[in-house]
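Before relying on records like the one below, remember that each one covers exactly one chain. Contacts with other chains, cofactors or solvent are not represented anywhere in the record.
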Amino acid sequence: MGTAVVTGAASGIGRNVREQLEANGDRVVGIDLKDVEVCADLSTPAGRQAAISETLEATGGTIDRLVVAAGLGGHVVDGQLVAAVNYFGAVEVLDGLRSALAGRPGASAVAVCSNSAQMGEPTDNPIVLKLLEHDEAGAKELIGEQPGAVVYGLTKHALSRAVRRRANEWAEAGVRLNGIAPGQTRTALFEGSEKDPVLGKFVDRIPIPLGRKATPEEMAALILFLLSDTAAYVHGSILWADGGTDAVLRPDGF
């Protein structure tokens, strides 16, 4: 039992994480736009800072588990908004709450990334580099009017790298930090992409060797494993959970 914080706790994977944490006896402070303890807009710097300060107040400055699951899908037209939430909203909450996790026995955090992080050639993409430099204005300028369908995978790639880049400093603070890379999962976010008249055609062509889409409950269970003491030696990792999609698309990339 302890105190957990979950962004995106009102729906999808975040809501299922919340339910499973509460079933295990944790007190959960949710962050989302509505229907949670801390209502905040992670798309703006002011909203992120409000989320951090209100969460620290709600938890008394002591957190045992943190999950950043809030995100927008590729079907969202505004690519700048997708970057603001998926990257800056995630990393600023992670960094802003690290001190509340530091020194807690078994403290751990998980970021929800995506298997789309490695689709295409994102490594040296200028937008990715601006994200990793934490240059929000510069990233938005490069994104311009590009839609979320173009930007989504880049934000998740940058978030995955941000998790790995923090491995040393988070370990020094006594906190494990990992990410998961879900494949197609039956959430409202995914269904928005699936139903999109353009993006949906691409989604349908993505191979899934296991032959089915995941449930949010399955992703939540994986997150709880990473948060648990059973995963005490797992740190700085991005764990793929996509039914084999990445293995098919990149059999030699690992």
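The chain has eleven helices and seven strands.
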